[in-house]
Amino acid sequence: MGIDEAGRGPVIGPMVVAAVILKRREAKRLKEMGVTDSKLLSAERREELFPMIIESAESYLIKVIEPKRIDEAVSKNMLNLLEAEVMSELIRELRPARVIVDSPMRNCRKFSDVLREFLGDSSVKIIAENKADSKYIQVASASIIAKVERDRRIRELSELTGVEIGSGYPGDPKTREAIRMILKGAEFPRDQVRWKWATINRLLEEIRGNDLTEFLD
What we know:
Its EC number is 3.1.26.4. The protein is α/β, with parallel strands linked by helices.
């Protein structure tokens, strides 16, 4: 089983964590079809590969972590722990013999230990590596599933609210403009904004000062 996430760094929208179980033959077939790290693929190509991965997978599962839960973890400097907790939920539900995860920590052994502590099961073999999505088809497949799911949710949110969000990442000019509009009173679900992100504070200083109270109530 491969596990990866999409949306760890955005200021708007959820983080999506996906798990995909592939047999060797199916993994080889997906590699030949061009499955790789989702960041190296266009949005159109990810959408094309998405159903192919679903069809090829022995099983798969998606978990969505909403911004409020992410904010709570960030305020306690526990975002890595939150990711490990959600990964452990995926492992418990799909019950693989071996799991490969894209480690959010540089110290991969430490993350593996944290994940096993959440899991509470010593029988599952855990491989935690940085940039695992560029090394293992199982993880690359999970990265595509997670990215497509998150992108769809962001598009739906834009269509629902009429606010052009862009990617939701702080470096995206469309996202920054969307945040400015929200801070100035545009109708937008407040629970889809990560209020603890530094981007919010910087833009808030430009627009209203430092008081976030009216947005968090």
